Amino acid sequence: MSATVNRPKTARDRVRRRVLTTLLGLIDNRASIQRAAAISKHEPTADSGPGPYYVSGTPRRRDIREDRNGVPLALHLHVAEVGTLAPVADAVVEIWHCDAEGIYSGYQRYGADKFPAVVSLLLRRFRPTDDAMFLRGEQVTDEEGRVEFLTIVPGWYTPRTLHIHVRVNLGGKALLTTELYFSDEFSAQTQSLPPYAERGRSPFVNSNDIEIRLAKGSPGSWLTVWPAEDGYRADVTLQIRD
Among 19, 34, 164, 221, which lies 20 to 30 A Cα-Cα from 147? Predict the structure, then answer.
């Protein structure tokens, strides 16, 4: 397994980050996020692409943490049909996200603070650098359409707010690919704790996130989070069309 590489920020990186932060500051997602919070049972969960850090061959497992440190998170996902909210059994649910330092397995040589390559970002695909699989996993929904993953609260990286990727397949057919989001208040709270506090609070939040903007507030993608015994529990119902 390759070691995580955090490249030092250059003067060019710092300038690019300032420019990017200024541009993202022109985005205001607050109204669309408020509307998205009131998703009806007849509305599917917002779809999005898999992002530039997806890799195939995800292991089937409940605990995806491996050696990654962070605030424990029990992620409970419920897959249901749009309209009836009937549970969808035997669906393959796959998740992946970055670690507390903003690094993805498979892409450990991409610095979390480095401005991403524009062409690769537009193509939504970076070239993998290693074969690590931490914080990646898949499971099959039970008769109630539910799965649970044991993971950690993700960190942040340029230029994204905190998020978890999820993909739902049934019978080999992709039904949903989306991102799950936390409230900015929860993100700020966890970023004040170790090991997240070493990087400081993220300048990239829900209100200025480009993916949330493109998804019009991302209805059905907002996690309900509350304290658990050794960390937090997060729940969401993914409403899909079969």
Answer: 34
